[in-house]
Amino acid sequence: MSLDTKTVAHIATLARIRVPAEDLPGLAQELNGIMTWIEQLNEVDTTGIEPMAGVTHRNLPQRQDAVTDGGYPDKILLNAPDAAHGFFTVPKVVE
Amino acid sequence: MSTELTGLTIGEALDGLAKKSFSSKELTEASLAAMDKHRDLNAFIVETPEKARAMAAEADARRAKGEAKGLLDGIPLAIKDLFCTDGVQTTAGSHILEGFKPPYESTVTANLWKAGAVMLGKVNMDEFAMGSSNLSSYYGGVGNPWKRRGDNRRLVPGGSSGGSAAAVAARMAFGATATDTGGSIRQPAAFTGTVGIKPTYGRCSRWGIVAFASSLDQAGPMARSVKDCALMLGAMAGYDAKDSTSVDLPVPDYAKALTGDIRGMRIGIPKEYRLDGMAPEIEKLWAKGADWLKAAGAEIKEISLPHTKYALPTYYIIAPAEASSNLARYDGVRFGLRVPGESLDDMYERTRAEGFGKEVRRRILIGTYVLSAGYYDAYYVKAQRLRALIARDFETAYKEVDAILTPSTPTAAFAEGENTDDPVQMYLNDVFTVTVNLAGLPGISVPAGLDARGLPLGLQLIGRAFDEESLFKVAGVIESSAGFKAKPEGF
Fold this sequence. Notes:
Number of strands of chain B: 11
Radius of gyration of chain B: 21 Å
Strand content of chain A: under 5%
CATH class of the domain at 2-256 in chain B: Alpha Beta
Oligomer: heterodimer
CATH superfamily of the domain at 2-256 in chain B: Amidase signature (AS) domain
Shape of chain B: globular
CATH topology of the domain at 2-256 in chain B: Amidase signature (AS) enzymes
Strand content of chain B: 5-15%
Distance between the termini of chain A: 41 Å
Radius of gyration of chain A: 22 Å
Structural class of chain A: mainly alpha
Structural class of chain B: alpha/beta
Helix content of chain A: 25-40%
Order of helices and strands of chain B: HHHEHEHEHEHEEHEHEHHHHEHHEEH
CATH architecture of the domain at 2-256 in chain B: Alpha-Beta Complex
Largest sheet of chain B: 11 strands, mixed
Largest sheet of chain A: none
């Protein structure tokens, strides 16, 4: 599978990273180099092997479904690039 | 006097503090002076001298009252800039987090302060821990204190924990925290003649550590002796309800494991780690390591880990996949950089384009691709199946052996500019270390000798899950047999 510039542009949109059009061919070549190297995994027959998502062989612990933290909006907003009136702000999304 | 102080191991410094031969204030001032002197290495992103002095004064006050509080009371440490530190800038080496001051403390660093350690500052690293040279840091590369004989070119300290490695090797800090997702503790340890251990996944809490690949990330210490790493890990490790993958097991007294007695232990030598074109001196050192262990009474066995060659390509699906979703949070809304845009999406795209460096962008795009509709099974699930086979290789091997001995890296430290054109070439640095992360096992790198150009080389020991004690024990034997006393010139 080879990644063309159109595919790379599509992935970049999915990842919400602006990639200038002139960067696309170079980036496609780099990503193709990596993906071609990864293709060697197809040499291995993995039929019937259970996919491994993590190394913890036990159920994740559960806790009471209760509020255990919070109540400090100032701390939460401390690092916001543009907080106002106790809220995070974003560009206008509704016309 | 001060150079003598900075050259002490943590163990020696603790003895001196206990005997009142010197104070934490003196150790801390000596470290701060060394940081000042070696600022050209660019090891620190932020120095926190005021905090260090205040913490040292508290440690001295406790000791004066006979109330020394923990395993590391009064010991100055450097903290990798991936650990959130309350009120102190934490960037993960990225522009996108420039200026970010967490209003909370990571569990691992909180544990260290509880043990009495002193914070010197935050050390440089590859951006979001993605790299093997520290060159992907937005805050610039880090110099390795070591140089090739007769060659003045600046070498990389390895990565991603390059600042941690340089700070420890250059005697600026007595030890440093680090993290390891594919080799980021062990490779820089090998490149700088220091000791570094990646503990078992789940040993140290990941809470408050900026996430790269959550199923692989694990914190660990770097220091100048095996015992120092044992002391530091003892303070860093432990169950934490805030990390659901943290494991509720008692933390042993790791330093006690350093008995030197490895009689009857079975050590595996995996034949698949013998690479074509491997530097002969690395192969020789590996054989020497096996001889040392044999001479100490261990039994050496050749073993097979048949899926080893697939570990790196497996990693380069799984780690970018996890990273692409972890790094989705950097969107210019809640913290970090914001580049204004005409719409919400425009703002996201501009912020992330400016905020992420090239390697991070590359990995986010690969991760997004392998998780996207139509490719998920072909790449991501395939890699997860390979991961299961790699883990199974180790399970099979541990029926026959108690620990595994390998080289830490395929080469010694390289110069800035070498090795950097082709990303895949750079990824090969982790060929001996990455299997350990995929299987969630502990691994330690111990300096064992110098190459023909005078650069340090490391040997890696891989252990069973949660058997760091055996690793420390065997690593202690490698350390004493190797008698590695070399120091970078001028440090």
